[in-house]
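Ticket #4471: structure output looks truncated?

Reporter: J.K.
Steps to reproduce: submitted the chain below (140 residues) through the standard prediction queue, then opened the result file.
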Amino acid sequence: MKAHLTRRYLFSASHRLHSDDMSDEENAATYGKCNNPYGHGHNYVLGVTVSGPVDEKTGMVCNLVDLDGFVQVAILDRFDRQNLNMLPEFTEVVPTTENLSSMIYDILQRGFTHAHLETVGIEETMMNSFEYAGGSEIRR
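Returned output as attached by the reporter:
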C-alpha cells in the first residue's frame, strides 16, 4: 500500500524581487511593490509531501523524526530569518517564491532518502501559494 504524507513547517524570510537583466522601470512594472529597494518579509508555510509504501511494522510512510530533522538542517536553518537576496543560492536568481520552491525541492530531492519526494508547496501569503513537483530547472 502506498500513502502520501504532507508535513508543514514555518519560516520567515525577506526578499526583494529585482532582476539585474531589467531596467529599474521594467523591474518596477514587473514586480510592483515587491521591488521596494528595502525588501519585504513573509511568514512562509512550507509543505513537504512524500510518498512510499506503508511499512508493515511501523504503519508509516517514513519516520517523522527523520523528515523533521532533515528539513530543519537542510531548509529551515538555511532560510529562516534570512534576506534571501543575500544568500549564495540567489546571487543569479530572482528570489521569487516560485524559485524558492524549486530550490527547496532540489535540496530535499538530493538529500532525503527515507521516502519519495512528491511536491514542495509554499504559502507566501493568504492569497499566494506555490507548488513544485520537479522536472525543470530554475530560470536564471
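Triage note (M.O.): checked the attachment and the full C-alpha cell line is present. The two ends are 40 Å apart (CA to CA).
Status: closed, working as intended.
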